[in-house]
Amino acid sequence: MSREEIQKLLGGYATDTLSEAERRALLEAALEDQELFDALAKEQALRDALREPAARQQLIEALGPARAPFAVRGWQWLRQPAVLAMAGGLAVLLLVAGLVLRQTRHTVRPEAMVADAITAGPPAAVPPRPAPVKPMEPRVMGRNPKRLVRLPAGRAAPAPAPPPTPPSAEGAGVGGLIRGAPADAGEAKSQMLPAPPATPAPAPVASLNGRARLPMAAGSLAKAKSAAAAKPAVPYTLLRKDADGAYTSVAFDTVLHAGDSVRLQVEPGEAGYVNLFQRAATGGWNLVESRPVEKGQRYVVPSTGGLESDVPARLELLLTISRGEQSADAGALSATAPAGSAIMIEYR
Amino acid sequence: MEREQILVKLRERIVAFAASHVQGDIAEDLAQEVLILLHEKYHHVDRLDELVPLALQIARFKIMSLRRKSQRHGEYTQVSVTDIQLPDLEANPEALVERKLMLERLTQAVGRLGGRCRELLRLKLQGRNFGEIQKRMGAQSINTVYTWDHRCRQQLLDLMGGDWETDKK
Fold first, then answer.
1. B27 with B76: CB under 8 angstroms?
2. What is the DSSP letter of A347?
3. What is the dihedral of CA B27, B30, B32, B38, to 10 degrees?
4. Helix or strand or coil: residue A61?
5. By the CB < 8 Å criterion, does B52 face chain A?
6. Is A59–B60 a contact, with Cβ atoms under 8 angstroms apart?
7. Looking at the predicted structure, is the pLDDT value of residue A239 above 80?
8. Who contacts B120 (Cβ-Cβ below 8 Å, separation ≥6)?
9. Distance CA A314, CA A98 (A)
10. Is residue B112 packed enough to be buried (19+ CB in 10 Å), middle (13-18) or exposed (0-12)?
11. Which pLDDT value is given to residue B132?
12. What is the pLDDT of residues A101-156, one digit of tens each?
């Protein structure tokens, strides 16, 4: 034992509670160490006092009742009414919190289902005519994607299976590169839709709704948002001028070559004005045409001529419907386009 | 260690210890008287763990007697060997009073100890050794008990004014 350890045995000397080995180690060390011997000699007074059983008993009584072992003390503490009340309260609190959490999750799930229903729309219920776009706002058509922002990631219900309707000419030639807003170009490209074979017959706009749900992946908030954004505010069909000079619908991914002239065929769900803008080199929007339209009628914009490029380029268009006629003043629109159907046409 | 070796070392230690309480030459005489008593009255005691406590006890009583007589008469009076025989000291009224006073101070001091120290002291007073105390108090090692006891002893000593016998505060 080290000197420090032996010094710690001093307390056992007075009460005579040292084992044989401890006592021998202490006394041998005391014979060699004057300081320890002096300390031992000072302890002798206490040792003499504690030698009497009566004195020991008096001190034991002065020390009070014995302390229960740790486990017993812990059990006694737990059995106190205040502790029991706290524990019960905590348990109730946890239970309520769990129920609230569970309820909250159940509340979120239907919201995801609603989002899917809006986006996907059962094909059987969709008439051959385009679904009306609601609500119609003065300048912007489209659903507010903010409603979907609240969907927690991974909680969105899986996208419904594609409609059992076999691929037909109805799905051809509709849309293009559809974007919720021009600023979301990267996101929009991920929404490029599969193209059925092009047919001469113009496809009903209704098929656009069916297509819009296809890119939506199950359980993904981001994709849910994209899908909602991909839903065009103004249903349209892409028309290309063929060799005969007539405009026929083409698939959205049809490769356009320099010199091709294109138009858009729209079939608005509300009466008003359909406006076609083209992104200017300065970043703003130029009004190509604003024409009055009636609900359910088909119109072609621009009504005269077509959009074309003599060189490989990308035309960025914006199709909106408003109640009033859009001013031809390009400054009426800010550099940031309002919500509507953003269309990207690439010439290669 | 042989008895004679123990006595030689004891003398050396007692002289040094007594010198811190009485004059140097008296300390020599005191140590000599302790050894004479051990030789004449306790010659049968030869074990280290008995000899050292006995020598310490005799030395303490002798120092106490020296102090008392010095205070009483105002002069130093040589204490004879017969005066420091332990049975007689046990019956000494002055020693009994001093012990009673010390016990009262101890009783007051232990009441101010912390819970662990009280439990440790109680077990010690009940005659438990450190190994048993370790089990009873759930200490991880016996060194832990040594440390606890060392601190508790120091705390008790502080509560008693730094000395077991007289309050130096």
1. no
2. B
3. -140
4. helix
5. yes
6. no
7. yes
8. B133, B137, B145, B148, B149, B152
9. 54
10. exposed
11. 92
12. 988 876 555 444 444 444 444 444 445 555 454 544 444 444 444 444 444 444 44
